[in-house]
Structure formats: structure tokens, C-alpha cells
Amino acid sequence: MPGLVWFRADLRISDNAALVDAARTHTDAVVALFIICADQWREHDWAPVRVSLLLRQLEVLSGELAELGIPLKILRCDRFDEVPNRLLGFARRNGCESLYFNVEHEWNERRRDISVRSCFEADGRKVSSYGDQLLLPPEAVTTRSGTPFKVFTPFARRFSEVMGETGVPRPKPAPSVRFRMKLDPDPVPERIKGFSDGGRSQAWSVGPKSARRRLDKFLGSRVVDYATDRDRPDTDGTSGLSPYLTLGILSPLQCLARAVKANQGVIRGGQEGLSVWINELIWREFYRHVLIAFPDVSRHRPLQAWTEGVLWREDPEGLQKWKDGKTGVPIVDAAMRQLSSTGWMHNRLRMISASFLCKHLLIDWRLGEAHFMRHLVDGDLASNNGGWQWSASTGTDASPYFRVFQPVSQSQRFDSSGDFIRSQMPELSNFDAKSIHLPHQYSSLEAQAAGYPLPMVDLKEGRRRAIEAFRIARER
Ligand SMILES: Cc1cc2nc3c(=O)[nH]c(=O)nc-3n(C[C@H](O)[C@H](O)[C@H](O)COP(=O)(O)OP(=O)(O)OC[C@H]3O[C@@H](n4cnc5c(N)ncnc54)[C@H](O)[C@@H]3O)c2cc1C
């Protein structure tokens, strides 16, 4: 009887627990399946650039699986509700008694998987699931009283202790099997209606080799300066691996294991750049643990309940200016234009532009969160929600509400030459390193001639208004 492996956010054959176990258990045949759920993806705000990258990776995965003698079949369901019956129908038609998959932690995905499991079990079929999205299971990283952490620093400390005790496991190699393929693989669609990305995803090469090359190249050189360069949007100072992690082209364990090896076997300490980079992987892990412990974050709820009382401004025009990169604050505008033209935004800019929206403009963070998801190639519910709630002071580890990023100082500090702003905003190319951060203040005539708008909000007044709105909500 063939084993059925359902691929989701784990589009790789190495370090894929579900695939490895299926290939070990079923010595006659394994069938792989991917389900396209276009309407559900749209509801989840998946960006066209992300879907396009996914399809390109699926094509590579199909080829890799075919070499193992495993056909990749493709089903189409509009929404998750249809998945259990369609999947069961597929299993029945193909004589698959056992289903294997790696767990997804988002709310709708969890509900879908519970239904799939009960459908299969009611039909006398076996379901095996594996936790490959996490480096450690949630129950292994808790406070002394066994509750989940809500603050990053103690989480990271505990995570490192536990990982230090158990040791970083070795990623699983790809199965070394060669089945005789009884079914033909399905063709992978080149595009899906409604997800046209205008070729943006081509900036990312697909396939495990290029993902590993990117990881090795980063760990082999740029990581040395990561502690300082990671905050500079004008420098190629970070790994650029988030799209690969989001789609599961690389597993977090593959990244951690390589980084720890390069860091002489330690998670904390060692070479500064490596240790800071490992810390970022732990941030990713943290937001996943948060998503599991507090599933309401999947459903647009703030983690700090009192922040439900913040009176956000209704300002569709202001929101549109922010989306279009026309706020009159160059670093914010450059960030937003980078997002819309490439599907990518540097982490420092994500923090600056998010803070500007929910603090200076006092616009609901959920609108910004959705906009990011609709455009990011690495759009990931746990990290995106975590980043937005952090920026809006509504989440775990939230920056206190009265600490408001000053976008111009951030710009002067992290894009001191103005090179990044110039790279995104040709109309400001004639401004020098001093004036480019606030062009109207230094040369209003020139800024007007360039067609660049005045700042849409007085930064001091915006800050005061945000602090006041949060203070009122807190005292309610
Ligand atoms: C408002 C906001 C929204 C965000 N949305 C997303 C998102 O949708 N998807 C996403 O993957 N990341 C998101 N992040 C986190 C971070 O910006 C990106 O992970 C990072 O920019 C990816 O670039 P990199 O791969 O070069 O990162 P590197 O600096 O090389 O870091 C390595 C890896 O660590 C993880 N990581 C790094 N920083 C963070 C962080 N702050 N939080 C969680 N994980 C982190 C990522 O998986 C990243 O690939 C968001 C941050 C903010 C502030």
C-alpha cells in the first residue's frame, strides 16, 4: 500500500520528517500531494509574489521527488473546508492507507488538519504528523511554572539552555529510495488566476541547492559583520533567507545546525555575528510558540487585551498614502516603495514603517499587517503578526506604548548617506546626505519642484496623539 505524503509549508526533500518516515515505512511506493487552495490563500492575504515563488519551487520539488520514484500529484480545492473529503477521496482512489504531513500551526490550518484526521480515522486510515516547523516543541520551552513565555529574552535564554542540554539534532538527510513510479506526476501550473506577480519572484532563485548556497555564502562571509550591518537597509547585510524558510525550502533546523557548527558548537556567545544571527532564528521560533499558545493572534486579536480599547483613526486616505509611499517622510516612503516594487522589505524598515502607521498615523495595525501579507514574498502569519504587534505595542514583548520610533532619526542613523532612499526615490536623487531625510525642512522649493509631498503628519504631534490614545485605553 503506498504511503501518502501531503506537502504544505515544507517544500523540500531533506530534513522532511513526514517524507522520511513515509519512505521508511512504505517500501513499495509513496505518493506525494500538494493542494492548491486559491480562495483560501486569497482570504489569508497571500501575496502573488509568494504564490509565484511557491509554484516555481513546487516544480523543482516535483523533479526531485520523481528522481526518488515519488510522483507529485496536485489537487485543487477552493477553500480548506473542501480539503478533508477531497483528500480522503484521493487516498481511497489510490489505495493509500496512511497519510503523513508536517504540522502547520495557524488557526485555520489546525482546524483543517483536525477534520482531515477525523475523516481519515473514521475511514480506518492512519494519520501521522510531525513538528518540523519548530526547533523545540512548545512544552519544552516554558516558564518555571510551565506557562508559555510572553517575553522574548527569557524565552531565548530557556531555549538556549534546553537546546544546550539536548544538543542541536542533525537534520535528516533526504530519503535514499528509488521506487518504481506507478502514477505520473501532475504538471505544476505556472500561474494561478488572481496571483499575478509581474515576474517579481524571479529575484529569488528556487531549489534546495540555491537556498543552501545562499546560507553557506552568508555564514561564510557576511555574517562576520551581521551585528552591525543587519540594521542598514543600504547594505546587503542579512541572509535574505526568510522566503526559503516561509515556504519550507529550508528548515529552521538546517539553518540553526549550520550556524551552530560555524559558531564552534555554541548557541550563545562565540562569534558575535553568528550569535546575533542565531538569536534572530530564535525570534522566529518565539513567534511560532506565541501563535500556538495564544491562537487568538491568528484571528486578529491583540495579545495585550487592554489595547483593544485604543481608538484607532479611520483614515482611508492616509492609509493609501502610506501604502503608496507618499507620506512625505522619505525613509517610510522608500520602504513602502521597496515593498511594492520587489515584495521585500528590510527588517529595520519594517519596524520604521509599521511604527509610523500605527503610532504617528494612529491607524489600526491590522490594516498594515494585512497590507504586508498581501505584498511580502516571505509573508508568514506568525512573524508578520509578531512584528506588527511588537511595533504597535499590542503584543508580547511589546515596546512600551510611549516609546515611539522617530522615523527621521532612524533614517539619519541607519541610512546615514541616504543611499537607500535615493535607490527607491529618484525624485530625491539630488538631495545630499543631510537634507534627504527631511527635504522640505532643508530645501522646500527644491522638494516642491521634485513633486515630493510635505510630511502628512507633524511628527511631534503624531507622537503625542498616539501616546494619549494608548494612555486613555490603558486607564479605562
Ligand atoms: C512589521 C514586521 C513584519 C514582519 N513580517 C515578516 C514576515 O511576514 N515573514 C518573516 O519571515 N519575517 C517577518 N518579519 C521579521 C523580519 O523582518 C524578517 O524575517 C527579515 O527581515 C528577513 O530577512 P532575512 O532573511 O535577511 O533575515 P536575517 O536577518 O538574515 O535573519 C535570519 C532569519 O531569522 C528570522 N528573523 C529575523 N528577524 C526576525 C524577526 N524580527 N522576527 C521573526 N523572525 C525573524 C527570519 O526567518 C530570517 O530569515 C517582520 C518584521 C516586522 C517588524
Structure, explained:
- The protein has 476 residues and is mainly alpha-helical.
- It has 3 domains: 3-132, HUPs (Rossmann fold); 134-170 and 208-293, Serine Threonine Protein Phosphatase 5, Tetratricopeptide repeat, CATH 1.25.40; 305-475, DNA Cyclobutane Dipyrimidine Photolyase, subunit A, domain 3.
- It contains 21 helices and 5 strands.
- It has helices spanning 17-25, 38-43, 48-67, 83-93, 107-122, 152-166, 208-220, 226-229, 242-247, 252-262, 272-293, 316-324, 330-342, 347-360, 365-375, 381-391, 407-414, 419-424, 439-442, 444-449, 459-475, and strands at 3-7, 30-36, 72-76, 98-102, 126-130.
- The chain has a 5-stranded parallel β-sheet, with helices on both faces.
- Helix 1 (17-25) links the parallel strand 1 and strand 2 (30-36).
- Helix 11 crosses helix 16.
- The radius of gyration is 23 Å and the shape is globular.
- The model has no long low-confidence stretch (mean pLDDT 96).
- Residues 230, 238-242, 245-246, 280-281, 283-284, 287, 347, 350-351, 354, 372, 376, 378-380, 383-384, 386-388, 391 line the site of flavin-adenine dinucleotide (FAD).
